[in-house]
């Protein structure tokens, strides 16, 4: 990765730790798979991270490793801490409530009276964000992507970056780590909407096996279902790394394979490029779902924020493609329309705090447009990046989900965040689907800001909510499967 002027919060934390010589902070057992597959966003952090004490990690009393330890931890030991931000944010939450409240007050953060469902830990996070936040500008978008990715990855739990062991001994029960990772993932390259390269990250859960076996562990997918996930970030930032933790959690909790899409971003690629790329990914998955142990009729969609909007538009256009809308894009649009007509319909979708209406203002726009993680100024910059150079008019079916035909949309589980400028858009979309008689459930996370899934491993309450949402959607989907099975019997 080339040198960058971006200083992420995690980088600054590591510089502080190094200067204070706190090199034993957050020592853990070696994360062998994580070390051998560091992604590009972590390379920035590695230049400034503290070196761990190798003797401390290998043995605290200079005793030789057992055969079992050698089998489990044979890889090189890491020398760095790329997730210091995770430990710092999680550790702050362990401080006494009075201390947290004092820190919030010192930073002029929101009070419990302002946000009655928000605890002091989260209000402190919001206060720090408010102090560190700088105005967004289109010209800084590349740097913003780097900083956003570095910090979001640094907030994620290190355990989600551990691949299940692939050693000779890993299939033998006595040499298997207790509570070790069961989700494996790999990046693949497929064609985007213009036949260029596009990365997807594919997650699969390993089946538990008993006894001695040298065979590779089989995959686990009892529901024969696969999720296609679209990351958020205002159509301008974010990637498969920034949403790795959430996709990993979905796979771990449900057993479903998850395919996360690294679609092209604005302003370099304005609307509807992201939508076209996501449709291309859907087409690829429909043709290759058997490799994941899934049926073409059991593809479920999900995404957060901008990705939630993409989920709603993919579902809409796959189920009821609009010929006139695609004709506005000329030959490329006609090509996409023809492909859409051959695709199987998705079984269900889960948009999280989605973008559904690019034009109308709702009460939440005024209530929560300032001082939170997503504000008016952010929306304006993302909006300009995505739409100003688009070949489509601002008010168009392919840029605003609620303008299209949602009368036949698949069953939908909508997640809204209480403290979100986009909250009422989610409610309006749910109301429209209810009007059409679509099976829809809406779940509101009280006390949560926009983008709350990024805090799932550093804030206890938001972690519990995210876990609950995943389980609820799994139950929602399994009920659909049961109903379909009964009707087919």
TrEMBL record:
Superkingdom assignment: Bacteria
Keywords per UniProt: Hydrolase
Signal peptide boundaries: none
Residues forming coiled coils: none
MF terms (GO), sorted A to Z: hydrolase activity
Record InterPro entries: AB_hydrolase_3, AB_hydrolase_fold, GDXG_lipolytic_enzyme, Lipase_GDXG_HIS_AS
SUPFAM superfamilies xref list: alpha/beta-Hydrolases
Similarity comment: family membership: Belongs to the 'GDXG' lipolytic enzyme family.
UniProt domain Alpha/beta hydrolase fold-3: residue ranges: 227-453
Record Pfam families: Abhydrolase_3
Protein's UniProt name: Acetyl esterase
Organism: Psychrobacter luti
Enzyme Commission designation: 3.1.1.-
């Amino acid at each position: 990765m080339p040198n960058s002027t971006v200083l992420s919060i995690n980088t600054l934390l590591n510089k502080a730790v190094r200067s204070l010589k706190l090199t034993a902070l957050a020592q853990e057992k070696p994360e062998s798979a994580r070390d051998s597959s560091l992604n590009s966003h972590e390379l920035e952090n590695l230049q400034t991270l503290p070196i761990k004490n190798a003797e401390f990690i290998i043995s605290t009393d200079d005793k030789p490793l057992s055969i079992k330890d050698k089998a489990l931890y044979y890889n090189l030991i890491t020398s760095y801490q790329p997730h210091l931000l995770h430990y710092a944010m999680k550790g702050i939450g362990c401080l006494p409530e009075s201390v947290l409240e004092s820190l919030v007050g010192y930073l002029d953060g929101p009070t419990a009276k302002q946000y009655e469902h928000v605890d002091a830990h989260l209000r402190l996070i919001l206060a720090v964000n408010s102090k560190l936040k700088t105005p967004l500008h289109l010209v800084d978008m590349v740097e913003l992507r780097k900083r956003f990715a570095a910090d979001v990855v640094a907030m994620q739990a290190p355990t989600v970056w551990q691949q299940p062991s692939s050693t000779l001994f890993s299939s033998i029960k006595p040499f298997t780590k207790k509570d070790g990772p069961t989700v494996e993932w790999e990046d693949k390259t497929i064609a985007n909407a213009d036949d260029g390269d596009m990365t997807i990250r594919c997650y699969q859960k390993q089946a538990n096996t008993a006894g001695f076996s040298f065979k590779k562990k089989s995959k686990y997918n009892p529901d024969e279902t696969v999720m296609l996930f679209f990351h958020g970030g205002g159509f301008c930032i974010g990637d498969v790394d920034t949403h790795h933790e959430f996709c990993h959690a979905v796979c771990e909790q449900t057993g479903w394979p998850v395919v996360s899409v690294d679609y092209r971003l604005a302003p370099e690629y304005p609307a509807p490029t992201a939508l076209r790329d996501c449709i291309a990914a859907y087409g690829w998955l429909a043709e290759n779902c058997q490799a994941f142990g899934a049926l073409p009729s059991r593809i479920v969609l999900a995404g957060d924020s901008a990705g939630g909007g993409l989920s709603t538009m993919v579902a809409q256009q796959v189920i009821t493609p609009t010929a006139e809308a695609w004709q506005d894009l000329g030959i490329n649009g006609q090509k996409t329309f023809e492909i859409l007509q051959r695709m199987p319909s998705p079984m269900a979708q889960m948009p999280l705090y989605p973008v559904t209406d690019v034009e109308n203002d709702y009460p939440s726009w005024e209530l929560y447009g300032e001082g939170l993680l997503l504000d008016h100024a952010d929306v304006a910059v993302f909006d300009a990046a995505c739409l100003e150079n688009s070949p489509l008019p601002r008010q168009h079916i392919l840029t605003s989900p609620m303008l299209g035909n949602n009368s036949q949309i698949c069953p939908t589980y909508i997640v809204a965040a209480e403290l979100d400028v986009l909250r009422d858009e989610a409610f309006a979309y749910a109301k429209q689907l209810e009007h059409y008689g679509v099976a829809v459930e809406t779940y509101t996370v009280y006390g949560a800001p926009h983008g709350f899934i990024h805090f799932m491993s550093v804030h206890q309450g938001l972690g519990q909510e995210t876990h609950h949402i995943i389980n609820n959607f799994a139950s929602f989907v399994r009920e659909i499967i049961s109903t379909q099975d009964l009707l087919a019997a």
